[in-house]
Specification:
29% of the residues lie in helices and 22% in strands. The protein has 221 residues and is of the alpha/beta class. Helix 1 crosses helix 7. The chain is globular and about 60 Å long. The structure holds inosinic acid.
Length: 221
């Protein structure tokens, strides 16, 4: 029987990205979210610790139709801004729900120059995602990073969270990120994740990379 990967998340944008990546494997992918109040959002120093805590909580609240061989997936991500020493990092959720994208843009307002390449360096940031899978009683973790920079103004459209203010660096032929000022065959052409379609975001996404890293560790992947 085809196993189901149960993804614990209330975020439909994250679920869509994970489902799109996992569709290349022979798994069903379903979203689940236990009742409000039964899970807490841990505050910890690393995304790995947060993901592990979420996974331990998820295991206590398995979905009703969970079957033998099914897996539980959790994922935690954050935006790390170099000029702010990695802030908001593990505080990304709180910062997004308080000062929001406009607040981040204001915090970096002094970091712009006429030259787009040096602006991109000054405003550099990366997304990091940690995906953790509970599979046959074992925990497997994967990490993924997407480097880029913070836009001077928000570009709305698709996406969620910090997507409207994050511009990924171009990627080379092997999908490896380039440094600012280097143009590669995979590019959003200066557009933020918020302004591009989700299949293009997928090429750059820290989440896809974390899932790749994780599922490459499974013998059946
Ligand atoms: P979470 O704790 O993993 O849900 O994410 C922390 C914060 O980062 C939330 O405000 C998310 O909306 C935001 N975030 C996570 N992943 C992404 C992404 O891929 N794009 C934009 N924002 C994201």
């Amino acid at each position: 029987m085809t196993p189901t990967v149960w993804f614990l998340t209330g975020n439909s944008g994250k679920f869509a990205e994970a489902r799109s990546y996992l569709s290349e494997f022979d798994y069903h992918v379903k979203q689940f979210m236990p009742q409000t109040g039964s899970l807490y959002e841990p505050q910890a120093e690393s995304l790995e610790v947060v993901a592990e805590s979420k996974l331990s909580q998820a295991i206590q609240h398995l979905p009703d139709d969970f079957s033998d061989g099914d897996m539980i997936l959790v994922e935690d991500a954050g935006l790390f801004i170099s000029a702010l020493d990695g802030f908001p990092g593990v505080y990304s959720s709180y910062v997004h729900s308080t000062i929001g994208n406009l607040g981040i843009i204001r915090l970096l307002s002094h970091l712009t120059t006429e030259d787009p390449v040096s602006s991109a360096s000054l405003r550099s940031a990366h997304f990091k995602a940690v995906a953790a899978l509970w599979c046959n009683g074992e925990i497997i973790m994967g990490q993924g990073v997407c480097p880029g920079h913070i836009a001077v103004e928000a570009m709305d459209g698709n996406g969620f969270g910090f997507d409207p203010i994050f511009i990924p660096y171009d990627l080379d032929d092997d999908f490896e990120p380039l440094s600012p000022g280097n143009y590669g065959p995979h590019s959003t052409h200066g557009e933020t994740f918020g302004a591009i379609d989700s299949s293009t975001k997928q090429i750059f996404s820290h989440r896809t990379r974390a899932l790749q890293n994780l599922f490459n560790q499974l013998p059946s992947a």
